[in-house]
Amino acid sequence: MDEGYETGTLRAADIYRAFAVIQAIMPGLGLEAWEALTATAVLRHDWLTVADARGYLRGICHLFVREHLAFGRRLEIPIFASVSLLDEEGVAKRLFEAIKHRALEAGCEKMHFWKWNARDWQSLEIIKASEPWDDGQVCDLSADLNDAHPSIFPVKM
Description:
Layout: E1 6-9, H1 15-25, H2 31-37, H3 41-44, E2 47-51, E3 57-68, E4 72-82, H4 88-105, E5 110-113, H5 124-130, E6 137-140, E7 152-154
Parallel strand pairs: 4-5
Antiparallel strand pairs: 1-2, 2-3, 3-4, 5-6, 6-7
């Protein structure tokens, strides 16, 4: 069920709406830390959202590109959340498609969805540098560029 969702980069006007969603996912994250993570357009570019026709955020994810000698260039997704009560699957699909588009734009052949762990999101740069490469789920886009449902390969959990 597609309720006229809009998918895109987190806008400055939606920072506090997004904070309400993030609090459900990461209750330990304070408002000041959230404001620091989303303070500029460059930082907000790493956050994608799905909003319904009324402007309520129904999905959010954080992503960034990372290079590795063995794994190559891939899109890292440490946060992926669909928070719709009535259409969780539809919101997740819209968010997944936006992530897939961003990965292809960035020249990534793989997307790495991280296993959920409690993290200190105030130190996002430390998390980006230290998170394991083999944790979570990897989606290989190069194998299924024309397939609406790319293969997702499990990795160490």
